[in-house]
Amino acid sequence: MGEQRRRYDRAFKYEAVKLVTEGGRTVAEAARNLGIHENLLHKWKKQYLEDTEHAFPGKGRLKTPEEALRKLQRELADVREERDILKKALAIFSKGPK
After folding, report:
1. Which of 55, 12, 49, 52 is nearest to 34 (CA)?
2. Which long-range contacts (CB under 8 A, 24 or more apart) does 13-18 make?
3. pLDDT digits 0-9 by tens, 39-92
4. Is residue 36 a contact partner of residue 16, using CB atoms and an 8 Å limit?
5. pTM of the model
6. What integer pLDDT is reported at residue 97 of this predicted model?
7. What does DSSP assign to residue 22?
8. Which DSSP category does 62 fall into?
9. Among 59, 53, 45, 52, residue whose Cα is nearest residue 5
10. CA 64, 13, 44, 2: dihedral to nearest 10 degrees?
11. Which alpha helices (DSSP H) does 8-63 contain, by range?
12. Which residue pairs, CB below 8 angstroms and at least 24 apart, start in 24-33?
């Protein structure tokens, strides 16, 4: 059977990246000290530098702006559906009795 994949929390990733960006250590040295693969630390560093505030959102979560956009799109779809239902109801009731 394969090896179980290790998971790292957001705080660990931030601290690992800070060792490299602010601590003056090389990626190889920091990775070796933390017991992680060098490529993994390079990936985290890249994610951090691309979007410092929203880096490492977690499994299955979107970055905050994307999450807000997705929520607004869902709300818009719901409102449109409600509007269409009301339009149909208005058309039915405005015909009046025969």
Report:
1. 12
2. 13/44, 13/48, 13/55, 13/56, 14/48, 14/55, 14/56, 16/41, 16/44, 17/41, 17/44, 17/45, 17/48
3. 999 999 998 888 777 677 666 565 677 778 889 999 999 999 999 999 999 988
4. yes
5. 0.54
6. 65
7. T
8. -
9. 59
10. -110
11. 10-21, 27-34, 38-50
12. none
Domain residue extents for the chain = 7-59, 62-98
Residue type present at position 27: V
Pair of tokens at residue 13: 């990733």
Q: For residues 79 and 10, give the distance between their C-alpha atoms in angstroms, rounded to a whole number.
A: 36
What does the DSSP 8-state code read for residue 7?
-
What gap in Å lies between CA 90 and CA 88, rounded to an integer? 5
Residue 43: helix, strand or coil by DSSP? helix
CB atoms within 10 A of CB 74: 10
